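Rotation project, supervised by the postdoc (A.L.). Task for the rotation student: set up a whole-complex structure prediction and record inputs and outputs verbatim in this book. Inputs entered:
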Amino acid sequence: MKILSAIALALTCLAANIGAAAAAINQPAPAFSALDSYGNRVSLGDYADKMVILEWTNHLCPFVQKHYDSGSMQALQKKYTGQGVVWLSVISSAEGKQGHVSPEQANQLTGSREAMPSAVLIDAEGKMGRLYGAKTTPHMYIIDRQGILRYMGAIDSIRSANTADIPRATNYLDKGMSELLAGRPVSEAVTRAYGCTVKY
Amino acid sequence: MGIGSTVLRGLACLVSVALALPLQALTSEVVRQPHIRASLVSQADSLQPGSATRVGLLLQPDEHWHVYWRNPGDSGMPPSLQWQLPAGVEAGAIEWPFPEQIPVQHLMNFGYSDDVLLPVPLAVAGSVKGDTAVLSLRASWLVCRETCVPGTAQLRLSLPLSAAPAGLDAERAALFERALARQPRPLPLLGASAEVGSDTVAIDVFAAEPVFRQAQRLEFIPATEGLVEYGQAAQLRWRDNLVQIRQARSLTYTGLPQAVEGLLIVDRQQAWRVSFTP
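Outputs recorded:
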């Protein structure tokens, strides 16, 4: 029993270490602060009364390429930023790892892919990624106007790197946003994200 | 004596050659893709109408690269198969050999970093006619080291149809034996429970037999998604027929699933499949 209690204690400590404010669905979204690709400090607190979408990304990951080569991610960015929603693309690749980019490269990527995020956050230390439990690219989150986390998970329902699957898939982000904007709860609030490992 | 053994060796050689010749036809072309080779392999040298056999997708990742189990863990994607088969021939589900744990920073994947054969049962109806059956498979996978490369291969295997019982070929049989020896066996249970706290998940398993008595090492590999945090190592205690698993609760936990399923792997030799309604 002693061993069991010790294990329980160790696990509690581990869990506590993950972060007292780790992202949890229908709970206040963890406060973050990071530099964007123009060197501006961006914090969750800047967006009171706005909905915020977080998109973990790595331009060299085939699962990310699936959603950018098809234009599907850009279309969602355009659709929601056009409605006053804040879209933050987050790059948590560590220096020297796949997908790590300089701020200039991040801006070039936004331009060349005709992406329309509100900002691209550079999180090379992985702080924000770990805070949100981001595991894959893509990995999507929706924060409502009250700062409550309303969606965490996959971009869509078909776990593949194949562009042809996009039209057949349910886009969880789009569905969740539509429900929230219509004043309804998100019907599938947590899904398993799929893709490449975030290159911490 | 010397002459005798030479003759015997010669004979053995001839027999090997004779065995080796038809083997070519029992494996599809080996398709080379970035960081992996893929082929379709038959367990038997012919298909017998009215019987069942197995074929398998052989995936051979390069050194340090891996492919994924059916639950890939925190990222990744399991291989998927799309068959095109003659009428009356039906492929079943992949019989997944037990995987290994592949840690990536603070995250965890489940997969295979060595050659792996994914066996698939094949049922051949008695009504199937003709001389040969052509099995076509479109196999897709994700092969990763630190980075990942998706791949696809169109594999084709032409097998003779024969009314006689199909022979088992030794070389292929060894591949299938290894894969089948690594099949998780259902663990008969006296009882099991899963309790979820705010941070941890406690799973207790009472097996019908003391199958863990000799275990030096035990691993828990969850198949159920959204229950435990894969990257936070499970703490395991076991004795005789009892296993207690304590693992951090998944960050995406939303409620107890209908069924809790996972593998208990004993000394990297044998896997038990645990499945119960919590």
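Student's summary: Chain A has one domain: 23-197.
Supervisor addendum: The CA atoms of residues 98 and 199 of chain A lie 7 Å apart.
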